[in-house]
Amino acid sequence: MKIGVAALVGGLLGVPGFLCFLLAFGTDYWLLAHEDCVFKQPRTTTYSVAQINSTEASEVEDPNRSFLTLHHEGFFWRCLFQHDSTQHLLLAVLFTNQPRSKECIQGYLFPLPVAVGPVPHNIYDATAVFRGFWTVLIILAVVASVTGGFLLVCAVPFISQKLYRVGGAFLITAGCLFLVLVGLFILWKELVDVRQYILQERGRACPDAHLEAQYGWSFIVAVAGIPLILLSGLLFYCIGRYLQRDI
Fold it and tell me: Is 84 helix (H, G, I), strand (E, B) or coil?
C-alpha cells in the first residue's frame, strides 16, 4: 500500500516535470529580445481577417503606431518579427499574437551564432564552445527523461525494484542535466554580449539601437520542471531501494 501511494506521488510529480522538459525543448522562447533598429522595408501592420477576406492579404503602413523588432530563439528556430511597442514582450510571443510575416531560420546550434564568412570573423564569438555543450546537454536531458519515464511505466505493474532504481536514476540525471544547461544559459545571457549576438550584421546600420533581452517562456518552463523531475526521480529511486531491502 505504501509503495503504491509513493509511486502515485512520484508519478504526479514526474509527469508535469517531464512535460515541462518536452515543452522547453520543443518551443523556441528561451531568449526574448526586442530592439528599435529600423528595417530597410517600411514598418507595416497586417489588418484583421475580416478585412483580408474582402481583399487580398495586404500590409498597410500605420504612421500612428511605433513598432519594434522582436527576436525569440530556442533549440530548433531563431525568429524575428515586428510588434507593437506598447505590447509587453512576453505577451507579444504568444502563438495567437504572432504575424504570418515572421522570419525564421534553423537554430540547432543555439544559443550562440554561427560565424558568417571565413573564421575568424569580426562577429565570431570566442565563447561559441557554449553552443556545443548546450546542444548536447539538452538532447541528453530529454533522452534521459524519456528513458526514465519508459522504465518506470514498465516498473509499476511488475513491482520491479531494479526498474524503479534505474528509472529514478535516469530522472535524476535528466534533472541534473537540465540544471546544468539552465546554468550555462544564464551565464551566457548575463556574461556574453547579447546585443552583439542579436544585432550581428544589422548592428552596423544601427550603432545606437536600444535592445532589451530577457528570459522567455521556455526558460521559465524548464526551470519549473527541474525540482519536479528531481523529486520524482529521488522518490522512485528510494522505492527501488526499499524493495531491494525487503527481498
Answer: strand
Range of the domain at 77: 1-246
Give the separation between CA 75 and CA 28, rounded to whole angstroms.
Answer: 6
- Give the closest residue to 170 by CA, choosing from 155, 185, 186: 155
Can you give the CATH number for the domain in which 170 is found? 1.20.140.150
Give the separation between CA 142 and CA 144, rounded to whole angstroms.
5
**Tally of domains in the chain:** 1
DSSP code, position 98? -
Which segments of 38-128 does DSSP mark as H helices, in order? Answer: 49-54, 89-92
Determine if the peptide bond prior to 42 is cis (ω within 30°): no
pLDDT in tens, 132-151: 778 888 899 999 999 999 99
Q: Which residues is 72 bridged to in the sheet?
A: 32, 79
- The pTM assigned to this predicted structure is 0.76
